[in-house]
## 1
Amino acid sequence: MSWQLLLYINLAAGTIRELLNKKISNTVSLFAGLFYITLFAQVFFYVSWVFTSQTLPRYDLYASLCGILIVAGFSFYFAALRISLTQSILFQSYSILVTILLSAVFLGESKYFDIRTFSGIKVVSGTILAFLALWFLLHQKNKKEERLEKKWLYYIAGTILFLGIGSFASISFIHKLTPTEIFINQANTMIPLYLVLIFIGKEKLSIGKKMLAFTFINALVSAIAAVAFYKGLLLMPVAKFYPLQQLSLVILTMITGWIFYHEKDLFTKQKLRGMILGLAGMLLLITS
């Protein structure tokens, strides 16, 4: 299977996943939706691992504890999705900035912020563009819209912070566990934690047959997208495959979000400027 076909599969599955994420976040309680998505995904990954390797996945306590960070990140992300899919899919990509920053501090990879290097210039420029983009998004003529954007900023900032830290923490296990094993270990913590949060928040665990089917499909396409992504990385260098995949997924999701969820306010002059700057900043970061 060619890397181009794997990319198409990843993008199709990823776009469907994000559309379903929006539908689920709008319809059911926050933690209940995430609980079922994670539960079904855990089953898919666990069965595929046992079927392909003929062994049980290795358990790692610290990899499992990383699931706490992922729970926080996805909880903030789903809250942000309720406000805007198009903005959220773009700016969640900036979690890579947190990962790069932590790598510079703890792994000695300070070259990413060294403006004497091409990579450093791109990272710093991408960061500046991100803040400029947020300025345009947060300064709206309509005060009600501006308050909503500030609420969205709180959620997306939590998404960026926790997913960025979670990604950095996961890097330390990549040499002893496969990506599938890392997810399985994280889900071992995520599933019971979501149950605890459902209990604390007094949310309903039952979400109805229709939404249960949506979470099942969501988990299935998420698994397909992940498998296609990692198989694609085996055929193409990360530096080429990852930027193309990320940029394409963001643009496709923005377009489909506009079509299916009628997020037409994205195309006001102020927001459009912010989104263009955000896309440019993301492109600089993922190619650094």
## 2
Amino acid sequence: MNDRTVASLGEFGLIEHCFKELGRTDVPGVSVGIGDDAAVLLVPRTQDLLATTDTLVEGVHFTSDTDPVTLGWKTLCVNLSDIAAMGGEPRWYLLSIALPSTTSLSWVEQLAQGMNEAGKQFRVTLVGGNTSRTSGPMVLTLNLFGVVGHERALMRSGANVGNRIYVSGTIGDSTLGLRHLQKTDQDTSNNIDVETQYLIKRHLRPDPRIALGMALVDAALARAVIDVSDGLLADLGHLCRASGVGADLDLEKIPLSAAARTWLGNGGQEKWKTLLTGGEDYELLFTVAPGATDQLPALAANLGLPLTEIGVISKQEGIRLYERGQPMVIQESGFRHF
């Protein structure tokens, strides 16, 4: 049994042992990567640099029981989703990690494994970071950088009255997967049915819609875009406020997986509230001018990803929900940090 701790390697030994492999050589734009005082990154004049960051704190975003491979994957992918929402191509990231000295070396190896898996799939490379000792909970901070054509980044502020509202994939799977894990003490065994396994996977291993974001830029289709991280209602609210508009949503059009639809049953306010405010769907929510919606079916087919019209942008501020033509009021809007 390997009971070595991170203290047995020290800071630089830990970096060499666990993280050096995450510095990939097949990602363009790296003049100097891991190993110097700073990374040197090359961005052509025809492109703009995108930057995003996220911090995960033990006890808030994950627990000591969380599978470290899964945590590594998710830490990278939630940032990738932000780059996807801007229509960018992700390239490089920095990782800062604060650990108790008693942390198992095996735990860090598995965390790096998860990040390496995501890095290979989405072609992003680690170019530097920092490790630190802490007497408190573990803290992971990831800074991710990407590129997009000059002045072509997608914003959340461009929605116009009459735009049709679209969302990719399905909504609510992640929060239902989380509910199962909370009830079963993080059980991800094969002793659960296929639908529940699907929901859990959607929560633990999100799939950032990078190809969709880049396609929306290439086709110049989207007027406003945001990724669904805080919940569909909360993030649509962010988009509407940034654009100075409101929205009307048809609940019957919200795309749901077979597993989520089984759970929803005959609907009702509380169940819709769960699906629309749970968050961590990491789909893209975007608006399209009514004259351009005929291009969406071909785009969806090309990507192999459902793109569903769920409502319309309106002049009146706020979000109005309708189920079978009848108004529905859902008070809670989504995840809030404070």
